[in-house]
């Protein structure tokens, strides 16, 4: 909402891109997304689809957790192309790997080379980045800053670290975005043992501080064992460390890192054995 006033304005940017593409262009599109499927009628480009749900030109089947990441079988034109492994957790990363494979093959990369590269890729900083483990508690840093990203990140954590519990630390970014997306956050944290909400990061919107609060966000969150708000990274660290058990994972989600809350949590965990 701080850039696009509503979903229609956000969608319009992609519609313009699709309308700009010509017959000489190739578009590889996610057929699992209903909005993408609807917009494909607006382009003259040569379209190929990828997806995990079926009916796509590039289809990922038998998606499963493999170690710390994911494994799936890539099909193309009705035939098995390769078994693909990615080090990145979550079904969304399996879909990303499938898109990368389709794109690489279409620009001339041999299938075996593309699969090998996907298997070596370790991700980028602050995208489900495992920062360490202290007294059996894993600390994960992620840039997730909207409901869809939060949901995908936490689902990946639940899948990867099961049967351990997932604890979440989240710092909302900007007042306008938090207010606009408030209802969408309701189920984004579902399944967490504890959700700790930090102060809203104002960025350029300090004048909107009166419009929404972290407490407003905490009140709408459901499907979790407990949710609390804190006023500092130090307070968040103590809350999380005191609740954590060996085998748990704490997922930190923010735009700016919340005053190095991960290091503060690690420091508290080192001093105080977890339950």
Structure description:
The structure is a single chain. The protein is an alpha/beta fold. The protein has two domains: 7-120, UDP-N-acetylmuramoyl-L-alanine:D-glutamate ligase (3-Layer(aba) Sandwich), CATH 3.40.1190.10; 129-271, Mur ligase, C-terminal domain (Protein-Tyrosine Phosphatase, Chain A). It contains nine helices and eleven strands. It has helices at 7-20, 34-39, 91-106, 111-120, 147-161, 175-180, 214-220, 233-243, 261-271; strands at residues 26-30, 46-51, 58-66, 69-76, 79-86, 129-134, 137-142, 166-170, 194-197, 227-229, 249-253. It has a six-stranded mixed beta sheet with strand order 6-7-11-8-9-10, with helices on both faces. Strands 1-2-3-4-5 form a five-stranded mixed beta sheet. Helix 2 links the parallel strand 1 and strand 2 (46-51). Helix 3 (91-106) runs antiparallel to helix 4 and helix 8 packs across helix 9. The radius of gyration is 21 Å and the shape is globular. The mean pLDDT is 95.
CATH class of the largest domain: Alpha Beta
Name the CATH superfamily assignment of the largest domain.
Mur ligase, C-terminal domain
- Give the CATH architecture of the largest domain: Alpha-Beta Complex
Strand order of the largest sheet: 6-7-11-8-9-10
Number of helices: 9
Task: Count every beta strand, where a strand is a DSSP E run of 2 or more residues.
Answer: 11
- Total domain modules: 2
What sort of overall outline do the alpha carbons produce when their principal axes are compared?
A: globular
Radius of gyration: 21 Å
Quote the distance from N terminus to C terminus: 42 Å
Uncertain segments = none
Oligomer: single chain
* Structure classification: alpha/beta
* Percent in strands: 15-25%
Mean pLDDT across residues? 95
Q: Give the ordered list of helices and strands.
A: HEHEEEEHHEEHEHEHEHEH
By CATH, the topology of the largest domain is Protein-Tyrosine Phosphatase, Chain A
The biggest beta sheet is recorded as: 6 strands, mixed
């Amino acid at each position: 909402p701080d850039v696009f006033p509503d979903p229609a304005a956000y969608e319009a940017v992609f519609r313009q891109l699709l309308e700009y593409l010509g017959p000489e262009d190739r578009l590889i599109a996610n057929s699992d997304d209903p909005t993408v499927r609807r917009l494909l009628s607006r382009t003259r480009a040569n379209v190929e689809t990828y997806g995990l749900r079926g009916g796509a030109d590039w289809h990922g089947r038998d998606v499963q957790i493999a170690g710390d990441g994911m494994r799936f079988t890539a099909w193309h034109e009705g035939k098995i192309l390769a078994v693909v492994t990615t080090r990145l957790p979550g079904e969304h990363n399996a879909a990303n790997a499938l898109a990368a494979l389709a794109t690489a093959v279409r620009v001339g990369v041999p299938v075996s080379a593309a699969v090998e590269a996907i298997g070596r890729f370790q991700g980028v900083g602050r995208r489900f980045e495992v920062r360490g483990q202290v007294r059996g508690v894993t600390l994960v840093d992620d840039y997730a800053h909207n409901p869809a990203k939060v949901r995908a990140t936490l689902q990946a954590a639940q899948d990867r670290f099961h049967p351990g519990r997932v604890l979440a630390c989240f710092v909302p970014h900007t007042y306008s975005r938090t207010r606009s997306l408030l209802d969408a956050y309701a189920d984004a944290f579902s399944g967490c043992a504890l959700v700790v909400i930090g102060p809203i990061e104002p960025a350029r919107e300090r004048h909107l501080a009166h419009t929404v609060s972290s407490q407003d966000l905490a009140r709408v969150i459901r499907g979790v064992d407990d949710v609390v708000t804190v006023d500092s990274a130090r307070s968040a660290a103590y809350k999380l460390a005191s609740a954590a058990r060996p085998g748990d994972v704490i997922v930190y989600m923010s735009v700016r890192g919340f005053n190095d809350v991960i290091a503060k949590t690690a420091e508290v965990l080192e001093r105080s054995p977890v339950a």
